[in-house]
Amino acid sequence: MNNRSRPADVAAPLSWDDYRFLLAIGRAGSLNGAAKRLGVSHPTVFRRVNAIERALGVRLFERAREGYAPTPNGEEAIAAAAQIEERIAATERRLAGLDARPTGTVRLATVEPLLHRVLPPLLARFRRAHPGIVVQVTADNHTQDLSRHEADLALRPGGEPPEGLVGRKLARLASAVYRPRALRLPRGAGPQDLDGYDWLLPAGNLAHIAMAQWLRRMQYDRRAVFSANSLLGLREAAVAGLGLTVLPCYLGDGERGLVRVGDPVEAMGADLWLLQHPDLRRTERVRALAEALREGVRALQPDLSGRAGPIG
């Protein structure tokens, strides 16, 4: 039956792409957030959701200043979209798990700081050993969802792996306090003796990490003169002389413009985990990259644990 002969009370069928838009809006709670998730523009999402509502003849979202809230009809559509997505992802995982060829693309989710000094040399060696495999890295501070097949592997600091994922703890990441080389401290001053100095703080989506929590417990956050949601940004600001900061030792020890203050602080440490979905353990390209990461991180233990760097 074509569109002209469809009865007026029969809604037009939605495509999976329509459901993708509804799911993105439901998860983000706003058009801007949905646009970022989908990789499209704000007007595209706006036009699409309006077209879907017209096609169905029902309102799916309530519009408000603070965002888009699903109506009961919208909640039902979003739930259906989530079920469709999970079935598609499960099928893709099963099919990918049967692929024994060491070729193709592996999507690796990680955090931005690990792309400095840690991952590039490992990936360069991996490329030479496996020229048929392309590694696609997504680096941010948000967890990519392995269950929804947004990534094949994840390498990131954190705790025990979420339910349904396979995880292996590869290393303990040490962190410490660092001062600009030009900033002189009293002889013997350690991380506990730095009240009264200017501080640079992890902020935004880094406000929950162990380093930020330690700064708050020490009440050093009261002397904050700069904050950023990037550890690389904090490092550069400290090098420029803005103040003291906290960094993973693999970021701070190799920077000539910084000096470590005392030993690494255990309370600021974090475990480095390699996560993957169990359905992909038989996929040769994923298995190969996972093994390369495990071996490479093992060789970097002195840098990651802070044992290789000088203490100022």
Automatic annotation (TrEMBL):
- Renumbered to this chain, the signal peptide range is none
Coiled-coil-forming residues are: 74-101
HTH lysR-type domain residues are 22-71
Q: Which UniProt keywords apply?
A: Coiled coil, DNA-binding, Transcription, Transcription regulation
**Which GO BP terms sit in this record?**
DNA-templated transcription
Instruction: Show the Pfam families listed in the entry.
Output: HTH_1, LysR_substrate
Q: Which family does it belong to?
A: Belongs to the LysR transcriptional regulatory family.
Q: What is this protein called?
A: Transcriptional regulator, LysR family
Q: What is the lineage of its organism?
A: Bacteria, Pseudomonadati, Pseudomonadota, Gammaproteobacteria, Lysobacterales
